[in-house]
Amino acid sequence: MLFDRPRAVNVDLQTDATLQVDISDALSERDKVKFTVHTKSTLPNFKQNEFSVVRQHEEFIWLHDSFVENEEYAGYIIPPAPPRPDFDASREKLQKLGEGEGSMTKEEFTKMKQELEAEYLAIFKKTVAMHEVFLCRVAAHPVLRKDMNFHVFLEYNQDLSVRGKNKREKMEDFFKNVVKSADGVLVAGVKDVDDFFEHEKTFLLEYHNRVKDASSKSDRMIRSHKNAADDINRIASTLYTLGTQDSTDVCKFFLKVSELFEKTRKIEARVAADEDLKLADLLKYYLRESQAAKDLLYRRGRALVDYENANKALDKARAKNKDVLQAETSQQVCCQKFEKISESAKQELIDFKTRRVAAFRKNLVELAELELKHAKGNLQLLQSCVGVLKGDT
Amino acid sequence: MAASSRRNPPPLPGAENQDPLSEMAGEDSDEGEDIFVGNSNPVAEAFQPDTANGEEPADLFSEAETSTAVNSSITTSKSNGVHSDNENDLFAEVSVELSMENPSTTAKSSGAEFTPSLTLSATQPESMEQLEEEKDEDSFDMEVAVTNPEKIGDGMNAYMAYKVSTRTTLPMFRNRTFSVWRRFSDFLGLYEKLSVKHSLNGCIIPPPPEKSVVGMTKVKVGKDDSSSADFVERRRAALERYLQRVVCHPSLLQDPDVREFLERDELPRAVGTHTLSGAGFLKMINRASDAVSKMTIKISDSDAWFDNKLQEVESEELQLRKLHAVVDSLVNHRKELCGNTAVFAKSMAMLGNSEDNTALSRALSQLAEVEDKMETLHQEQAASDFFILAELLADYIRLLGAVRGCFEQRMKTWQRWQEAQSTLQKKREVEAKLLWANKPDKLQQAKEEITEWEGKVTQYERDFDRISVTVRKEFLRFEKQKSKDFKSQIVKYLESLLQSQQRHVKFWEAFLPEAKAIA
Fold it and tell me: b/e map of A346-384 (b: 16 or more CB within 10 Å)?
């Protein structure tokens, strides 16, 4: 299913000609979505300059996890993995509609079917956008873009044989996360000498929580908006039925009003959709990315603790004069690791801020412009309709 | 005053009265001459074709009455019922003058152009165009308002009192502006009284707002929150609309009970509205719906008009109910949206606080403010969804129920007529048998009974014709009123949407530069 759409970016990315990645196509099959990943590159390590492969969601996750597990990348904010494509809700609604087909008129049924199909399409576009953003972030990152797994992902035109995690692996993941968060709390408790990182820690903690809150509240608000638009749709239908019962004055009136509501409802639905895209998705993305930044801080904190422990061990060894060399090497390693992470982390966090500000700016401006456009559209519709109706009576 | 409705009119001096009557029909009982005021009151009731008066159906009287009815319905609807008992010459003089000023004289003069399209028996036939041509003379210059709800008393005996203010130039009232305090049961009592008197004639009597035990209990108990304030406001608006519909109705306006309700300082407490109003109204609706099922089989009316109209009413009621349910849903979703927006705005403000880039932080706070303003807009929108649209629909659903009741009344009258006819038939058969069996004394009785029933049949037939006319007239008036109401209310609603969108535009326009200023 080919479709034309502007690149949906929640993040402002500098793209350069050396490596450009996008999702040029996507196909939705019953249970899965197949993304066509298209790459354009002047880098020497690729066999061609332009090529495409088909990937599924699990393969994206595999790529993401491989970054996370790579010690070399401990000092970077790993771009958050795209969420799993979730068409369940939409599919359920379509099913319910099919069951209820007998209880509504043909027009109502067709209308609702169109609605649900549009909704399905919107969700589809969103999931494509989110997968694409992930790839773009990786491609834009000076270090990650060179990753071998990434290149394989982009180029290898056969199935990567990555299977989704089975139950046991998922349980392992779960426990890992539990341990990590417990550990994270401990690590977070350690006060950092470095002001920059101390500030970032406090900031990120608070920011992450607030973004989480804002994200869920925005979702609820947008859902209410959609519900109201649906109601207006039904009002339009009922008014239409009333209007077609007769050809009296008042019936013609009803028909005109029904038409108006049809149009305003479309606008209302678009408002909800745009708010979803520009606001809700933005917040969701930064929810995930702020988590990734927190993870980075955690790794650094962990490295710091390790370093401090190594120092203590060294002191002990020197005092006892036993295994000093071993302790020294260990301490050296920890020190290097810690310093490496700290250095890149600082840059990453500064970049994160810049990206965040730019993305918010872009999306808020677009949001405001769209809201304005729709409000003006609505206004014009109402004005002309009221004018006609008043003129008639 | 009200009691005089049943009194017998003075004997009318013959046919010559037809003229003054028809002239008089052009006049408006309410355009005041003092003479008029003095005489008008007792007469108000007389239009209601009282079967009570059927005691001595002096043909003249009934004829005169019905022709009055017809004439007055041709001309302005204001001229109701004033005329059947006339002190004639006096009136004749007055009427001539008044009819000059009356726009309805044109209507009257076009009376000659009647084309009988109804199969009514004794009365002058009227043309449909005639009825429909009645201008919107509901320019009575009469305004009522219901305001200032106040809680009187405490605890479970407390009640809400509403101020009913009237402003009018109609002479039948003592003053031009006046107000009284009424409570909800007073309104219900008024409805009961009007119902008893007028529903038998096929008048469409506006139904009052519904009783609500839950709502009132909250108010009584003193729960001072927005839901009780909403409830009181809703009730106040509904009572106002109810009164406005009552005074808009030409026959009802003449009713002394209505005048008493508007004018009298202390109204005797309407008893029995407790159980009666809700249940009684419900009964009426139930009877109406029963009758409706019978109706489709029974009336073999030569006039399909009534059948068609009833069907229209029924399907319209169905659609309105559906619409009302959806509008209700919209109101709820908007209220939800309102709440969620407020919560989101706060959340945004918090996020703005955390953000360490100053420009972005400020922009986020601004966004929070915009969303706050949106919340207000949504709230106002929900209120207008409710008060303008939902209540309009609820009112008309009830009114359509009253219309159906009207049709049922007509149906009952028809049934009564048919039954009388069959009884007469039976009596005639009895008489024939007696003749054959030759029992003179019983024969005499039989003959008397036949005469009696013949009279009844004629009377009931006339009643049926009369009610048919009234119902038709009422229905047309209702349709016109409904059309006007819907149009004006929906336009009002759209205008409120319009204003809301204008403010929408303003708010986002103010935000845009803030968003662009992020660096």
Answer: bebbeebbebbbbbbbbbbbbbbbbbbbbbbbbbebbee
Q: Which two structure tokens, joined as six digits, stand for B215?
A: 């709502």
**DSSP code, position B48:** S
0.80 exceeded by pTM: no
Those of residues 239-258 in B touching chain A at CB distance below 8 A are none
Cα B497 to Cα A264, B220, B322, B490: the distances in Å are: 10, 35, 22, 10
Low-confidence ranges of chain B (pLDDT < 70): 1-140, 222-224, 270-302
Tell if the CB–CB gap between B319 and A242 is shorter than 8 Å: yes
Closest Cα in chain B to A200: B356
- Would the CA dihedral through B477, B480, B484, B485 be positive or negative? positive
Q: Is A11 on the interface with B (CB under 8 A)?
A: no
A224 to chain B nearest CA, in Å? 5
Partnered with residue A39 across adjacent β-strands are A21, A51
A214, A220, A382 member nearest B497 (Cβ): A382
Low-confidence ranges of chain A (pLDDT < 70): 1-16, 162-165, 184, 186-192, 392-393
CA distance A118 to chain B (A): 21
CB pairs under 8 A between A and B: 160
* Distance between CA atoms of residues B348 and A262, nearest Å: 32
Interface of A with B in 349-378 (CB under 8 A): 353, 356-357, 360-361, 364-365, 367-369, 371-372, 375-376, 378
Buried residues in B429-459 as b, exposed as e (16+ CB within 10 A): ebbeebeeeeeeeebeebeebeeebeebbbb
Question: A50-56 and A33-41: which strand pairing?
Answer: antiparallel
Interface subset of B 354-373, CB within 8 angstroms of A: 354-357, 359-360, 363-364, 367
Does the distance separating the beta carbons of A371 and B337 come in below 8 Å? no
A61 vs B: CB within 8 A: no
With a cut of 0.90, is the ipTM above it?
A: no
Q: State how far the Cα of A373 lies from the Cα of B500, in Å rounded to an integer.
A: 15
Would the CB atoms of A231 and B504 count as touching at under 8 Å?
no
Find, in chain B, the residue whose alpha carbon is nearest to that of A264: B497
User: For residue A93, what pLDDT is reported?
Assistant: 81
- In SS3 terms, A229-271 reads as HHHHHHHHHHHHHHHCCCCCHHHHHHHHHHHHHHHHHHHHHHH
Q: Which of B311, B344, B511 to mutate to test the interface with A (most CBs of A within 10 A)?
A: B344
Q: Cα(B115)–Cα(B276) distance, rounded to whole angstroms?
A: 44
Phi-psi region of A81 (alpha: psi -120 to 50; beta: other; left: phi over 0): beta
Q: What does the pLDDT read at residue B393?
A: 92
Contact partners, residue A328, CB within 8 Å, separation at least 6: A314, A317
Calpha distance B37→B39 (Å, rounded): 5
Kindly list the strands in the beta sheet with B159-168, ordered across the sheet, starting from the edge strand earlier in the chain: B142-152, B159-168, B177-183
**Can you give the pLDDT at residue A105?**
74
Which tokens hold the place of A284? 């969701």
Report the residue count for chain B.
Answer: 519
Pairing of strands B159-168, B177-183: antiparallel
Q: What is the pLDDT, as a whole number, of residue B343?
A: 95
CB within 8 Å: A220 and B340? yes
A166: left (phi over 0), alpha (psi -120 to 50) or beta: beta
CA distance A344 to chain B (A): 21
In the prediction, which pLDDT does B368 show?
94
Tens-digit pLDDT profile for residues B37-67: 333 333 333 333 333 333 333 333 333 333 3
Would an 8 Å CB–CB cutoff place B312 in contact with chain A? yes
Distance (Å) from the alpha carbon of B128 to chain A's nearest alpha carbon: 16
Phi first, then psi, for residue A247 (nearest 5°) are -120, 30
